[in-house]
Amino acid sequence: MTLDKQRVISMIATALRMMIGVSIYAMGIRWFYVPASMISGGITGISMMINYITQWPIGVMITIMNIPIFIVGWKKLGLKNILFSFVGMLMFSAALDIFSLFEVTVTDDPVLSAIYGGVICGIGSGIFYTSGSTSGGVDVIARILRIKYPYINFGTLLLYMDAVILFGYALIFKRFDVALYSCIAVYCSSRLIDLILYGMSQSKMCHIISEHSEEIQAEIVKSLHRGVTLIKGTGAYSGQEKQVLLCVVKRQQIVEIRRIIKNIDQKAFVIVTDARDVFGKGFENINAN
């Protein structure tokens, strides 16, 4: 198979993954959240609040509010880093408004709506994120803020922004009970996203064997701020000496590790294993009880 054919197949597979992901995500929003008057986090949550007041389409509102965010993101992050997310945002917005044409209420129980809606949205988002895209909004804002505040965890930034939106919903609509149900839904969704993207383990240990080990090592240290240990090895078949990179990262950084390796050396040999207990700088305190 030629390289061009492989690239086309890869693009088609990515597009299918994005479509399946946004469809499941939109189904969770329209068929579970909306009937219970719940909201999700991010720009989607703000759009849902506007929809509850004005009945304006959620997808249209997401697109309108994302335009200035993507313009700023283009200037701060570059077109290459933002274009894929822009396409993903448009697909998600379209899916939301398409699913609004089908009036479906799966359950009238708000607890069931929160739990199952959160699970379904998490599954859809997780599949969607595996394509390398995002639905824009606070994801882009968090990436921009990370430029100025690199010491703040990406997930922590998203959590803070979602919390502000949910708190604002409770104050504006005086629906504190529904806001609490929304918190349950957002939590369930985030857990499923983590499970799909990163698995069960909190940390991952990577062994990387590559002809471009120095470039990979430098990029990991620069981008992820993680230490890398060089281990001298010898290939049993070739007899050649090689450098093996040993690196332990948080599970949410595995996607970024794969991107770094893919961009530098697609022929690299990578082993990723679970690291249940990791003590030291950037991980758990060895003196903790």
How would you portray this structure in words?
The chain is α+β, with helices and mostly antiparallel strands and 289 residues long. It has 2 domains: 196 residues, no CATH class; 73 residues, Alpha-Beta Plaits. Strands 2-3-1-4 form a 4-stranded antiparallel β-sheet, with no helix packed on it. α1 packs antiparallel against α5, α2 packs antiparallel against α3 and α3 packs antiparallel against α4. The radius of gyration is 21 Å and the shape is elongated. The model has no long low-confidence stretch (mean pLDDT 84).
Task: Give a summary of the structure in a few sentences.
This protein has 289 residues and is α+β, with helices and mostly antiparallel strands. It has 2 domains: 3-198, no CATH class; 203-275, 2-Layer Sandwich (Alpha-Beta Plaits).
Lay out the secondary structure.
Blueprint (H helix, E strand, L loop, with lengths): L2 H31 L8 H13 L3 H20 L1 H21 L10 H20 L8 H11 L5 H20 L2 H23 L4 E7 L3 H12 L4 E6 L6 E10 L3 H11 L4 E7 L14
Antiparallel strand pairs: 1-3, 1-4, 2-3
- What percentage of amino acids are in beta strands? 5-15%
Shape annotation: elongated
Number of domains: 2
What letter string, H or E per element, gives the SSE order? Answer: HHHHHHHHEHEEHE
Measure the end-to-end span.
55 Å
Tell me about the largest β-sheet: 4 strands, antiparallel
Whole-number mean pLDDT = 84
Oligomer: single chain
What is the helical fraction, as a range of percent? 55-70%
- Decide which structural class fits the backbone: alpha+beta
Radius of gyration: 21 Å
Number of strands: 4
Number of helices: 10
Report the uncertain regions: none
Biggest sheet: strands side by side, in what order? 2-3-1-4
